[in-house]
Amino acid sequence: MSAVAIHEVEHDEPVTGIHHRKLAIWTFIGSECLFFASLISVYLVYKGKSLTGPFPKDIFEIPLVTAGTAILLFSSFFVVLALDALRRNDQTKAKIWLGLTVLCGIFFAGMQVYEFQHFVHKGLTMQGNLFGASFYTLTGFHGTHVALGTLWLGTIFIQMLRGEMSPKNAINLETAALYWHFVDVVWIVIFPVVYLMN
Amino acid sequence: MATSVIGQTDIAAPAHAASKTGLWSWLTTVDHKRIGILYGASAFIFFLWGGIEALLIRIQLARPENNFLTPDQYNQLFTMHGTTMIFLAVMPLSAMYFNFFVPLQIGARDVVFPRLNAFSFWVFLLGGLFLNSSFLMGAAPNGGWFGYANLSSRQYSPGLNMDFWVLGLQILGIASLAAGVNFFVTILNMRAPGMKLMRMPMFTWATFITQLLVLLSFPVITVALFMLTFDRFVGTSFFSVAGGGDPMLWQHLFWVFGHPEVYILILPSFGIVSEILPVFSRKPLFGYAAMVFATAFIAFLGFGVWSHHMFSTGMGPLADSFFSLATMLIAIPTGVKIFNWIGTMAGGSLQFKTPMLFAIGFVAMFIFGGLSGVMHSSPPADLQQTDSYFVVAHFHYVLFGGSIFALTAGAYYWWPKMFGKMLNETLGKVHFWLMLLSFNITFFPMHLVGLNGQPRRTYWYPKGLGFDLLNLIETIGSLALAVSILVFGVNIIKTWLEDQPEPPADPWGGATLEWTIPSPPDEWNFAKVPQVIARDDVWEKKRLEGAAWTPEGRTDGKGIHLPNPSYWPLVCAIGLTLTFVGLMLSRGPVGPWGIVAGMSLTVLSIFKWAFEPAH
């Protein structure tokens, strides 16, 4: 019998019918909503309050970040396909879609590293003005979430390559995917609020 | 091994035997009952330490123009007294009870994530030690427990003091959030068959709603603390006027967390009292459903009243009116609760055992604290009271007269279940009457000196303002309060050393599931998962079965498979704390190495934890 099955035998059936870990990740996401709500509020409170430049219009390059946004959106789609394939035990497709998801994560994080370097080069720093402080804090924490999510999904990808993932423990991918969708949804709020509403 | 033992019923037993005693068994335990005891023991020591800080404050204020403490020492003591009592005493003392009793009350063998539970405890303990290690460096936090901006900036607080505070609180927040997820899911998903939501004991309900408050309010303080960390370590200007920042933003973020935090401190106490009053009145809780909804309503309103902590900042009539009204509204569900407690006692056959005395003491003292709280909800009145000893009186009536009285009631009530011994009744009664009396002698006069204008957080007052006698009375009261805690200590030690026969499973005639199993419970809690048929389940079963009803006897637990002990939660907590120590020292040469080492250890232990067999 597999480890997952034992887990369920021991802890009995979840009363709500929602797997323990799935309910836990939903609960955690609920808590994270307040985390990002606070960060976004701070950004909005300090919008236009910077005493010195550079200001948003001097610095943003919409095409690059639009490409990053599209990649993150696609990655959410890919992880859905990966989970679906894993549930059908279609290992090849699961590997392809999950591999693509991880690649998208790496690409987005890389995009952000490049963007930050570029902005610092143009004179936008944490210390320089409130825009810099609140921008780097908000998008930096989002980027950290992307990086951790990529690490999580990457770990499952390696497990998958080693043949350790099956429909029985698909819940492991499902919880990671839920987290990944959340990180994506947060970006869908950040992108217009930070980059487009200027 | 996890993959092969199911069905082979005799294999689990040796694993239990191997993990019963010794330091290692405590360091690696994932048993919710042991973790509860660890929370209780650590929190009680922090509570005594916070009490000593309070006594030093009272000695300084015993006489006008006293020079027992320097102003700087005084600042450190009142800041750490507040921080300790809130984050290291009352919250973890509640955690002791919900760790130990929520799984028992819902008929579960453990929490849903036992290792995460151990992690919460170790992070809490290490965070508390981190915060208090500041005393060893002579640099304890000194900017007040709500760390108002400007006082907390690098410019006005250049030392390590507020670094300890901002990073220490961040560590403690991680512990609370992890426990929040764990208990929220445990209560929803781990209930025994028949334990519907509206059959859950009130303490479980209170815990459930408390975790919801933790989950929704702690992320806000997390963000605020990160911003303050950046201001202090990176040089941002989030709260610095010179860089365009707004110190008021700190107050808003802090109290969006801080007011729900007040209910995080008191709701579990409401729950404890709602357990004790029915048992010692021999009557079901009056208005159970109203009690549940009142608790939920208090929690909901708790998110809409934060600015009543900020009336004196001049927010304008619109904001003042809104927050004033919302605050007054809270009096309604709170009043419902008080009437329900009184209604529970009315017409019951009251038994004045020690737990009952403390529970009644709680109701009485909490009414005082609640009434002075309603007085603060009116901005014009609040402008007179804010930052004076009147406020100090108010929150000690709710936090000591409320929380501590209820937590003590819980100790006398649940001691036999936790430790298999009864606390001494006579000493308990001495403890109660001494504590009730000295509590009022200490804190009641603070209303008067407060209204007469004595400011809080001020180490010194001149002669002849009418404060002298009342302050002396307060100090005498606080020493008597210390004696009452000493009586409790004597009771604990005496009970510990005493040879007592094992108490019955159900010494008080309780209504909830924890009284259906031996005292103390076996590691697996229930030999057979209970089938719940009603609210106040045990009473209902006794009514139906009469003398035929008996509690569960001791069993050998064969065939019950328990989660494996693990040291990774502890290692992970050490890694996390090391990261914060590194951050603390990041302006020196070793700090960055501490961060790297700490983060590596954290990541390593998370991987080890994820891939070790849980069962």
Using brief descriptors, characterize the structure shown.
heterodimer; A: 198 residues; mainly alpha; Four Helix Bundle (Hemerythrin (Met), subunit A); 7 helices; disordered N terminus; B: 615 residues; Cytochrome C Oxidase, Chain A; 18 helices; 65% helix; 0% strand; globular
Provide structural commentary:
The complex is a heterodimer of chains A (198) and B (615). Chain A is elongated, with a radius of gyration of 19 Å. Chain A is built from seven helices and no strands. Chain B folds into two domains: 539 residues, Cytochrome c oxidase-like, subunit I domain (Cytochrome C Oxidase, Chain A), CATH 1.20.210.10; 50 residues. Chain B is built from 18 helices and no strands. The chains are: A mainly alpha (198), B mainly alpha (615).
Q: Which two chains touch over the largest interface?
A: A-B, 41 and 47 residues
Looking at the structure, the CATH topology of chain A is: Four Helix Bundle (Hemerythrin (Met), subunit A)
User: In CATH, what is the homologous superfamily of the largest domain in chain B?
Assistant: Cytochrome c oxidase-like, subunit I domain
Overall geometric form of chain B: globular
Strand content of chain A: under 5%
Q: How helix-rich are the residues of chain A, as a percent range?
A: over 70%
Strand fraction of chain B equals under 5%
Can you count the beta strands of chain B?
0
CATH architect. name of the largest domain in chain B: Up-down Bundle
Q: Which structural class do you get from the secondary structure elements of chain A?
A: mainly alpha
Number of domains of chain A: 1
